[in-house]
UniProtKB/TrEMBL annotation:
It comes from Butyricimonas virosa. This is DUF4988 domain-containing protein. The keyword rRNA-binding does not apply. Pfam families: DUF4988, LRR_5. Residues 86-213, 312-384 form the DUF4988 domain. InterPro entries: BACON, DUF4988, Ig-like_fold, LRR_5, LRR_dom_sf, Surface_bspA-like. The lineage of its organism: Bacteria, Pseudomonadati, Bacteroidota, Bacteroidia, Bacteroidales. Residues 90-117 form a coiled coil.
Length: 889
């Protein structure tokens, strides 16, 4: 073969080349190392495996390379070369890989869901809501919400069946099996025609036409992971490979793997047995729940080792089961791989099918009173939608409790009509607890504290009339006080830093479970009334959940905080129905574009879906047919540029929090910017303009942004710059406040060292604490307008750039400590800022004046006061002024 017959691109310094009549692998000296002609052509899969192994690149990248090679081969090959079969292979491989990736994602989601289901089966939890999950209008599963456990999504796709592979018939049309679709494989004049693809219903589609023919699956297997209860009552993981029998999944020691926690238990709840003792599971602890003559007995508690303790006795029984091992599936080199050791090793289950294969769930029936799941092996699981009965308390925590004081807790019992229940209370020694029943369904519990109070709990027990079921609730009494600003957070998949504000008089530590420390870290700030939780990005295809506890020195849980974390050439996409973006384009396709323009309507799910495309850099939303965005729309997003909708009214809270945007243009129609909207956007640069219609900017909105250009506050409707709004930003140039701003909040511009000049507006009334602290770039004069009444402590602390004059308006009545000073930390090292002259227009010296300006070792250079006011100011400053004069203002 001559060199002129060897075509296609040269990759990696011409190390290998593709031939139009086969594939040859030729080294730099021109020696053929491997070849295959048309009579013994390698499959595309073989070439992918050979090249990926040779070059060390993955299948996704290899797929792109081969498509490029094939395309060049089509246009540069011999005239008599038939490319139809080649394109059949390419299209079939692309669609089959897409189906397998989606299938693997859904299977792993089902496995994660099954962990929750097993725990629900062994607790008193129940379903609160079932939502149908659809794709292209077809039901594909359910989202299930529980009272206590995290929500799950289960997919119940139909069994995959073998279908047909499209081919080009003699008439030039696409044929599927023996059916002529009538669609040309090539356009007129040799142009490209329609390409077959597999739709969400598993059929072959050509263009917008559903052929009704199932897509053909490759020879191979589809694993089905399930659970089964063994004779010992414990659930274990099972697997079924292809048409084989269902078998137990075994670990490296050949032992079955529990789907539940340690000892197969999800944890046991103490209850009172018929003999009046505490029972845990099937074990009688021998400890009386109630003492002699009605005296209170010992109360179960959870010890530091996670076991139930009664008094000083460790029962050895876990209060909560450890997490079991969860099987994981992935596709590698076209094969199904299974791991049962958290990804440390993988077992090859065989070649992957291209169809859906057997479903994880044989059937899912959403009944009125339960959700019935039938597994592949015939196992039937019923998840109740409500408990037989339950009890609700209107209060479960009391703070700042006083000795010898009574506290009331109202209770309500729900259950089947006519069902009777019994409510009992167990309290610590010296505490008194009385149940005052109003009727069979409710009443109140009166708890009286002893003369000496410690942190304690009472236990409320409710049992049905037959004594067969007992539920337990606890009410906590704290000697001190603790209040958490928010007890539940939902975090975007890109991660987030959460500031948790705490008001408390109790020493506490923040406890993060060991298994959650890989994605949640904590930093405390003693004395500042807060701690931060740093949530790492979530790359898994499912939501993840954690509970962070605030615990005192005695191991007493003071508060719980729940964390839920949600699991890129211009491409134009029109979304007719909000929430359907993911059905129109895959994340892989989005990552293949640098810029995407989206029209139509979007909702929260669409914005969340966009954030999954980590390689997408630019999104144009300017022509969206809506004027709102959801909160945290691009929080944590890797997008660098976002063109906002032209008619946008509000930029919501955390809209771009900790995102990677590099610039932003706010539409003129925006009237509100939410709190944290652009906080910690540390890749921004250039100017920022706040339009004239903006009426409100939330706290922390631009904190720690890195804009290095000018800040333009054009709005005449803005009345307040809230706390930390621009703190830590890198703006340069002159800062001019809008005319109608009346209040500057605490830390509003703190640590903005790049500004060169400050102009305060004439309608300003107050300046908050630390408002301009460490804004060291300010030069020239500082003029406090006449309407300003109060200036908070350290408002201009360490603003070292000023060398001009300070003018303090005539209505200023109070100044905070160190308002105009520099230095520290000791009193002796503090000194006034470097103003040449200071003018006081008020006839009465403002309160706090001395501490705002003076120090022990430094004098003011020059002070001017209104005529007749010198003595009043001298009494304040004593001998800490070099020159003081009366002037007319």
């Amino acid at each position: 073969m001559s060199d002129t017959n060897v075509h296609a691109c040269h990759v990696y310094n011409s190390l290998y080349r593709w031939s139009s009549v086969g594939c040859r692998f030729i080294n730099r000296e021109g020696v053929q190392t491997r070849s295959c002609d048309n009579s013994n052509s390698p499959t595309l899969s073989f070439c992918m495996k050979f090249l990926s192994g040779l070059w060390g690149i993955n299948n996704d990248l290899m797929r792109k390379y081969l498509l490029l090679l094939f395309t060049i081969g089509l246009f540069t090959g011999c005239n008599d070369y038939d490319d139809g079969k080649l394109w059949d292979s390419v299209n079939d491989l692309e669609t089959r890989l897409s189906v397998l990736e989606k299938q693997c994602k859904e299977m792993n989601a089902n496995i994660e869901s099954m962990k929750v289901i097993v725990d629900v089966l062994q607790s008193n939890d129940y379903i609160t809501n079932v939502t149908v999950v659809t794709e292209n209008g077809v039901e594909i599963g359910y989202k299930v919400d529980f009272k206590v456990h995290p929500s799950i999504t289960i997919y119940h796709g139909e069994d995959g069946k073998a279908g047909e592979t499209p081919r080009i018939g003699e008439n030039g049309n696409w044929w599927v099996g023996n059916q002529d679709t009538g669609v040309k494989a090539k356009g007129e004049d040799g142009g490209q025609g329609q390409t077959p693809h597999i739709g969400s219903n598993g059929n072959w589609w050509i263009g917008t036409e559903d052929t009704g023919v199932k897509a053909k699956g490759e020879d191979g297997v589809t694993p089905v992971i399930g659970i089964k209860q063994d004779v010992n009552g414990i659930y274990y993981w099972t697997q079924k490979i292809g048409d084989g029998e269902s078998t137990w999944i075994l670990d490296s020691k050949g032992e079955k793997i529990k789907a539940t926690g340690e000892d197969g238990q999800a944890g046991e709840t103490p209850y009172i047995g018929s003999n009046g003792n505490w029972w845990i599971g099937t074990r009688d602890t021998g400890v009386k729940a109630t003492g002699e003559e009605g005296q209170n007995g010992l109360t179960p508690s959870i010890g530091n080792n996670g076991n139930w303790w009664i008094g000083t006795e460790d029962t050895g029984i876990k209060a909560k089961g450890e997490n079991g091992i969860t099987p994981q599936l992935k596709i590698e080199n076209d094969n199904w791989m299974l791991s049962v050791d958290n990804g440390a090793s993988w077992q090859n289950l065989g070649k992957a099918k291209g169809d859906k294969g057997d479903s994880f769930f044989k059937s899912v029936v959403n009944n009125e009173n339960d959700l019935t799941l039938e597994l592949e092996d015939g196992t039937v699981i019923k998840l109740p939608k409500q408990q037989v009965f339950s009890i609700t308390l209107d209060k479960t925590r009391f703070s700042d409790v006083l000795p010898s004081t009574s506290y009331e807790v109202n209770y309500t019992v729900t259950g089947e009509e006519g069902q009777r229940s019994n409510v009992e209370v167990i309290a610590p020694a010296d505490w008194k607890a009385v149940v005052q029943r109003t009727n069979d369904r409710g009443g109140k519990i009166v708890v009286t504290t002893p003369s000496f109070v410690t942190d304690s709990k009472i236990i409320v027990l409710v049992s049905d009339e037959n004594g067969g079921n007992t539920l337990m609730k606890t009410v906590t009494f704290l000697k001190g006080k603790i209040s958490v600003e928010k007890t539940g957070y939902t975090v975007e998949s890109g991660g987030e830093v959460i500031d948790v504000k705490v008001e408390t008089s109790i020493d506490y530590v923040v406890s993060v479970a060991t298994e959650d420390q890989s994605w949640i870290s904590c930093e405390t700030y003693p004395g500042e009334g807060k701690f931060t939780l740093t949530i790492q990005p979530n790359s898994d295809p499912v939501f993840r959940y954690a509970t962070v506890e605030l615990v005192n020195d005695g191991g007493f849980v003071l508060e719980k905080i729940s964390i839920t974390q949600k699991s890129a050439a211009v491409k134009e996409i029109h979304v007719e129905t909000a929430g359907t973006l993911e059905t129109l384009v895959s994340t892989e396709e989005l990552n293949g574009y640098e810029n995407v323009k989206i029209t139509g309507r979007l909702n929260t799910f669409d914005y969340d879906y966009l954030k999954l495309a980590k390689d997408l850099k630019r999104v144009d939303l300017s022509d969206l047919d809506m004027n709102t965005m959801p909160a945290s729309a691009f929080s944590g997003s890797s997008l660098q540029t976002v063109l906002l909708p032209k008619n946008l009214v509000a930029i919501p809270s955390r809209a771009f929090y900790r995102s990677k945007i590099t610039s932003i243009t706010i539409p003129e129609t925006v009237v509100e910017i939410g709190e944290y909207a652009f906080c910690s956007c540390n890749q921004t640069s250039g100017n920022l303009a706040i339009p004239g219609n903006v009426e409100s900017i939330g706290a922390y909105a631009f904190e720690y942004c890195t804009f290095d250009g000018e800040l333009t506050l054009a709005s005449l409707k803005l009345k307040e710059i809230k706390e930390y709004t621009f703190s830590g930003s890198k703006f340069t140039g002159e800062l001019v406040l809008p005319l109608n701003v009346e209040k500057i909040g605490d830390h509003a511009f703190a640590n903005c060292s790049g500004f060169s000049e400050l102009t305060l507006n004439e309608n300003l009334l107050s300046i908050g604490e630390h408002a301009f602290e460490k804004c060291s770039g300010f030069e020239g004069n500082l003029v406090i307008p006449d309407k300003v009444q109060t200036i908070g402590e350290k408002a201009f602390y360490e603003c070292t750039g000023w060398k001009g004059n300070l003018v303090i308006g005539k209505n200023v009545i109070s100044l905070g400590d160190d308002t105009f000073t520099i230095g520290g930390p000791s009193f002796e090292t503090i000194r006034p800022l470097n103003f040449s002259k200071i003018y006081f227009k008020s006839v009465t010296p403002p309160s706090g004046l001395y501490n705002a300006l003076c120090s022990y070792n430094h004098k003011l250079k020059y002070v001017a006061v209104p005529i007749g006011c010198k003595d009043a100011y001298m009494r304040v400053f004593s001998n800490h002024i070099n020159v003081i004069e009366e002037i007319e203002f």
